[in-house]
TrEMBL record:
This is YjbH domain-containing protein. Keywords: Signal. The keyword Signal applies. Residues 1-24 form the signal peptide. It comes from Yoonia ponticola. It holds the Pfam family YjbH.
Amino acid sequence: MQIRQILASGTALMALLAGNTAMGQDLSYNLYGVPGLIDTPNARMAPDAEIAATIGGFVLQQRGSFTFQLLPNLSGTFRYAGIDQEDGPGTDGTFDRSFDLRYRLIQETDLLPDVAIGLQDFLGTGDLSAEYIVATKTITDRIDVTAGLGWGRLGSRDGISNPLGALDSYFDTRPVRDKSEYEEGGTVTGDFFRGDMGVFGGITYRYSDKLTLKAEYSSDGYVSETDNGTLDNRSPINVGLNYTYKPGLDLQLAYLYGSELAAGATLTLNPRVRQSPGGRETAPPPVRVRPADLAAAASWGTDEKTLIQTLKDAGITLNGYDVTADTVARVRYTNTTFRSEAQAMGRVARILSAQLPAAVETFVLEPQQRGIPLQATTIQRRDLETQENRARGAEALAQSSITRDAGPSTGLSYTPDLEPAFTWGIGPYAKLIVFNGDAPVQIDGGIELKARYTFAPNIIAKGVVRQSLRDLPLADETETENDLQNVRTDGRYYGQDGNPVIQTLTLAHYGRPGADLYSRVTAGYIEDMHGGISSELLWKPVDSRLAVGAEVNYTAQRDYDQLFTFQDYDVVTGHVSGYYSFDNGFHAQVDVGRYLAGDWGATFGLDREFDNGWRVGAYFTLTDVPFDEFGEGSFDKGIRITVPNDFFIGNATQDKVNTNLQSLQRDGGARLNVDGRLYDIVRDGHTAGRFGDTFGRFWR
């Protein structure tokens, strides 16, 4: 490395340590989809829970990245990169999947800079792998300076001897990766912080609230790209700009390595910040405060129809009730509108205060879903009357109320169901298919018919018939060397003949076989590729963070026309599952058992859920299928996102969109997709679950 470059880097590092108090930090994303300069990272962290989607790159290398700020000091990135002409001009390119982790070691103060450590492409083929330690400091309210040390790709230009070699000679050299050994990807690349070390850094200047100018010295030599002639690497200096088109949408433009024009766009969103003004749903009725001189209790039966209709108008179905000694009202109901069971309970309680005789002092409220009671919350009517308009009234009510497991239905008078048993609808559908083989993004769309018949609240038949309008074949099959049944990789053949298909057609029964126990049995065409029977039992006390479940399935693989016949493959699968809710919205799940292809193993998942219904998580599955036999990706893994519709539209609804960003779907570790698994249904109504987490919405 040139002496002048070392001196320049040292001067920049001194400026970092001597800078002024942070005023306006640069939090823009680079072309790799992480907070950074242009093609190199900085040490900034996005606000907690921020989600960023970035598309960027230059002519012969394009990158799509998804970054999530898991914790205030920890972020993760999934990247899908297209590397054209990988082995030189005139040859085919490749699509590479990789994962990053970044952790902030020091947060900026008057004297100290932000300092972060990162692993880039630590889980993949290693084509983009690098490690770094980087510091960023605000010098003025418009200027940030960054300096960092990098290994791997970030140590491939003008590298110097690795100082970690003084600790162990292991760090002196970075082995040349045998690409044939890692071509399947998906495993930890290893070799962290080994080999030559490079110095990178740069400066950002915030010209205005919308425009930021950037310049950097990159220590990425783009060695393979230079060697095969796909990049003319003339200079380590990159310059660019970041333009904030509007809050949440940034555009990047840069000139790289003296030869390449690059561009990018980043869309950011924070689940904690509502996109649509809240409170657009119908306002709840006020609590009716009783007079001091209580009149004798009147008969409730004469007002039953009024109560049923009032609850229905509020989006709630009254299932049954009982009045004990004219002072205790027990009400079982189904919330069909509100995402939060606590908010629905608040509506029910206020309606009861207006409808029930003044002598009724105690409300026992029992929410149920799919015909199974989730819990029973006892609330004193006087607490409703005194806490409704007080500060921290929801917290006080939560402390004075008692929530237990719901009792049996004995004693309840069931009310007539005003909803029709049979419902149906027809309309368009759209399905986003991402990272499917060599196709980054595909869209399937068409017309679908949905129908549902409710035999009883806990016995439900439903189905979906679709007619796709897509004339777009899925990705070609990736060859594998294993003997697994093609339980997922044959997915491209399903529904490709242009005729209508039966997406699902099932009959499900839900039950309460005992205290703290919940059951489900589903039979029929359970998903688009498999049909049969699925049974499940869940143990989940109302106030417990822990839940344990077991599931057993017998299924056969459906024919490609997705109608009524099956192929000659059936299998018994099943899992024992453990669930645990941590603080700060984190939920862990472990499933151990047998998968659709007959392999045995375990799936590990960790999700972070927010009170507004957003959920972001990751999972991976390890089975007895060796990595080299699994095929591309080595093992099953992915990122899953749940987005509640009311976050954007503002109106109360239980609708949501589930998206699975799967690096690659293979046959190993494949599990049956069953609608209505018990844990999420049950946890909605538990104090150690979403009911308790969202009790602040009781008065909304």
